[in-house]
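Action item from last meeting closed. Structure (172 res):
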């Protein structure tokens, strides 16, 4: 069975729910204590004798501790990052256009993330700040919320409150 050598220590690996030979890997340099991380998407060859190849890699300014594939879009991937953020990547876009969104909902390292298998437009994160945070990915236009039922809600700007940012998907 072929091996793939990551440049940093591995923290998480997840199979794509859409493609049987595609995996995402979260890594962190220096065991996550200092420095950088990387999110990699790898292609496992259907032939066991063939090497594992890297499809794309995204460098992060802090360690990447977990990854989760979107359950509704085959090209979307979220990563839990050591700086307290969660990055949303779109593999359909060039690497220089990623991440397409960075959610800053935690005050310490984000340790894990997972997409909801039932409500497929949302995921949840857990952090070293002792919180878990559900995030719904929806359309966001001009600081007005538009959820899937068409209700609009202005985003309130208050200190010490959590707000969920949304992303507009434009897949063609």
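Sequence:
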């Amino acid at each position: 069975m072929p091996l793939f050598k990551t440049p940093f220590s591995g923290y998480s690996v997840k199979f794509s729910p859409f493609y049987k030979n595609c995996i995402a890997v979260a890594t962190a340099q220096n065991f996550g204590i200092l420095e950088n991380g990387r999110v990699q998407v790898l292609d496992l060859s259907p032939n066991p004798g063939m090497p594992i190849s890297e499809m794309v890699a995204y460098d992060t300014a802090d360690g990447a501790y977990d990854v989760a594939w979107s359950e509704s879009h085959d090209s979307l991937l979220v990563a839990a990052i050591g700086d307290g953020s969660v990055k949303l990547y779109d593999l359909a876009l060039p690497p220089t256009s990623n991440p397409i969104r960075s959610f800053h909902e935690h005050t310490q390292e984000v340790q894990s993330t997972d997409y909801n298998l039932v409500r497929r437009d949302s995921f949840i994160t857990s952090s070293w700040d002792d919180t878990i945070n559900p995030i719904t990915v929806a359309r966001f236009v001009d600081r007005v919320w538009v959820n899937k039922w068409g209700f609009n809600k202005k985003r309130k700007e208050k200190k010490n409150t959590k707000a969920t940012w949304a992303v507009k998907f434009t897949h063609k």
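Note appended to the action item: The chain has a mean pLDDT of 79.
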